[in-house]
Specification:
This protein has helices spanning 15-41, 44-73, 82-103, 113-133; strands at residues 2-4, 139-141. The chain is mostly helical. Helix 1 packs antiparallel against helix 2 (44-73) and helix 2 (44-73) runs antiparallel to helix 3. Residues 14-134 form the DUF2231 domain.
Length: 142
C-alpha cells in the first residue's frame, strides 16, 4: 500500500482567514476572564475591559465569517465540514453581538448573564477554530 498525498490542498483555509479565526479565541477568552474578575471583585473597569475585548472579538469574527462565506461560495476551495464550520461561526458571532448588547448595560446589570454568554461564546469560538483549522487526512491508495 502506497500513501498518496493530494498536493492541491483543498481543505486548507487561507492564512489570513486563519489569523482572524484564531484571533477570536484570545479576545473572547479575555472577555470571559474579565467578566470572572468583575464577578469576584465588582471593580467596574473589568466590565469595561470585557466590553472592549468582545468588540475586538466581533471585528475578528466578522472578517473570519466573511472569509468562511466566500469559502463556501468557491467550489474549488470547498472542504468537508465547511457548512458546519460556517454555521458554528455564525452562531458564535450572533451570540457575541448579544453579549456586546448585554455588556452595554450598567455594570451591575451584566451579571450573571454577561459571564455566562462570554463563556458560551468562548467555547463556540474554540469549536469554530477547531472546525476551520483542521487538516484533511491523507488517503491510502492500493
Amino acid at each position: 500500500m502506497a500513501v498518496t498525498i493530494d498536493y492541491r490542498y483543498p481543505g486548507y483555509i487561507h492564512p489570513l482567514h486563519a489569523v482572524f479565526l484564531a484571533g477570536t479565541i484570545p479576545l473572547f477568552l479575555g472577555a470571559a476572564l474579565s467578566d470572572a474578575a468583575y464577578a469576584s471583585t465588582y471593580e467596574i473597569q473589568w466590565s469595561n475591559f470585557a466590553a472592549w475585548l468582545i468588540a475586538g472579538g466581533l471585528v475578528f469574527g466578522t472578517v473570519a465569517l466573511l472569509c468562511a462565506l466566500i469559502g463556501l461560495a468557491r467550489p474549488t476551495r470547498r472542504h468537508r465540514g465547511g457548512a458546519a464550520y460556517f454555521l458554528v461561526l455564525l452562531i458564535t458571532w450572533v451570540l457575541g453581538i448579544v453579549n456586546a448588547l448585554v455588556h452595554a448595560r450598567d455594570a451591575w446589570a451584566i451579571m450573571p448573564t454577561g459571564l455566562v454568554l462570554s463563556v458560551i461564546v468562548t467555547v463556540l469560538a474554540c469549536i469554530a477554530a477547531w472546525l476551520g483549522l483542521r487538516t484533511p487526512r491523507m488517503r491510502e491508495s492500493t
